[in-house]
Amino acid sequence: MRRKPVPPAPDSLDRLWDAHRAVPLIPGSEDDCCGRVAERLDVTPDEGRDWLVFCQSLGLARGVSRGFERVRDHPDADDLRIAFEGNVFGAREALDALGDEPTSADAVFEAFEPTVPNWERHRDPDGWESRWRDRVARLLDWAVLFDAAEKRTDGYVAVAVEDAA
């Protein structure tokens, strides 16, 4: 299942590892886990939930009957990139819009726009585009952190898998 939450990309993966460490080893309720992540990262509870679900998408946390628990494995950069592309809604589509020539985040959004679910457009007819443009920018920034893209002064370019290794 591909999940939608994408927190703002930090300057380094250290913040992701902080979020990972905030997920309890012994399962806690979803609210407890979100609160714990939010407190450790000094973000709102809703942002804590986004981080928790994002960690789940990357295979760093898992949902269990009682809530969530931390996955003890430490995936390498390739594993994170693969999980990001496969489990985060829009990551693959944003990356597919990139090539060898620099592409702006706006151009990536234009290519991505047809994949925005109709219910998102109808839920907020005046604000969906701004939210999804921001989402695409976040996806691109995470792609850079996961070595799936490179940010240049004039846009983003795709990084071939063999180049990322």
From TrEMBL:
InterPro entries: Double_WHD-containing_halo (IPR058821)
Domain of life, per lineage: Archaea
Name of protein: DUF4375 domain-containing protein
Organism: Haloferax chudinovii
